[in-house]
Structures are given as structure tokens and as C-alpha cells.
Amino acid sequence: MEMIAIRDAAKTLARRFAPFALIQHGAAHHWPAAIPAIEQALIALPINARQTLAERSNHSTPGVARIIVDAVDNAFTLVPLPPLPEQMGGPTWEAVFEQEYGVETNRKVAG
Predict the structure, then answer these.
(1) How far is CA 63 from the centre of its chain?
(2) pLDDT band at 4 (very low <50, low <70, confident <90, very high)
(3) Alpha-carbon torsion (99, 100, 103, 105), positive or negative
(4) What does the mean pLDDT of the chain come to?
(5) Dihedral over Cα of 52, 57, 63, 65: its sign
(6) Which residues contact 76 (CB under 8 A, 6 or more apart)?
(7) Which residue in 13, 30, 26, 35 sits closest to 95, CA to CA?
(8) What is the rounded CA–CA span in Å between residue 20 and residue 14?
(9) In the predicted model, what is the mean pLDDT of residues 34-60?
(10) Alpha-carbon gap, residue 70 to 50, rounded angstroms
(11) 2, 54 in Cβ contact below 8 A?
């Protein structure tokens, strides 16, 4: 049950962080390829935090949200992507990420 909750939380986070590149160890991650990296960050949490995450299906509960935010803050540097144009049918966050970081979704970045 704990792993399912972690996987679900990772998927939700990856979607919510679509306007950002998640930089970790020199690699830029983005939705959906960021899911495994976020999942690993959540797995690295202490057992009691993982149990709390698994016990509460609502990830927006203040205590659970704080656990998740802390895990992401400790594991990644979030870099905002350029804003999407307001035109209908314009680029998606995925297209903007590819333009900024290249076609690969887990590309190494200079730094």
C-alpha cells in the first residue's frame, strides 16, 4: 500500500510541476519522465513520513503536503519554464521544456 501511495503522489507532483524543470544532480527532469525521480525522493523519506503519506489519500492535507514539499525541496532545484503563450493551440509545457533543455526529458544541464 505504501508504494502505491508514493507512486500516486509522485504522479500528482510531476503534473503539478509541469511549469518547472526539476534539476537534480545536473539532470533536468519534466513530466512524465520526472515521476521516477520524484518517486525516489519520496522513497528516501524517513519511514514514519512514508507511512503518513500512505495513510492519508488526500495529499493536500497540511501535514502530508508539508512532507511532500520538503522532500521535493531537498531533492530538486525547481527552475521555472518560460510562460506559455496565451494563444489557443500554442505550445505545451512539454514543448517549452524541450525547447529549453532539448528533446530528451532527463537531459544533463550545464552547471
Answers:
(1) 18
(2) confident
(3) negative
(4) 79
(5) positive
(6) 22, 23, 24, 29, 37, 41
(7) 30
(8) 9
(9) 77
(10) 13
(11) yes
CA angle at 18 for the pair 100 and 30, rounded to the nearest 5°: 60
DSSP class per residue in 4-48: HHHHHHHHHHHHHTTTEEEEETTEEE-TTTTHHHHHHHHHTS-HH
Q: Give the span between the Cα atoms of 35 and 10, in whole angstroms.
A: 5
Cell of 105: 526529458
* Complete edge-to-edge strand list for the sheet that includes strand 107-108: 77-80, 20-24, 27-29, 107-108
Model confidence, pTM: 0.72
d(CA 81, CA 3): 30
Name the nearest CA neighbour of 72 among 18, 24, 15, 3. 24
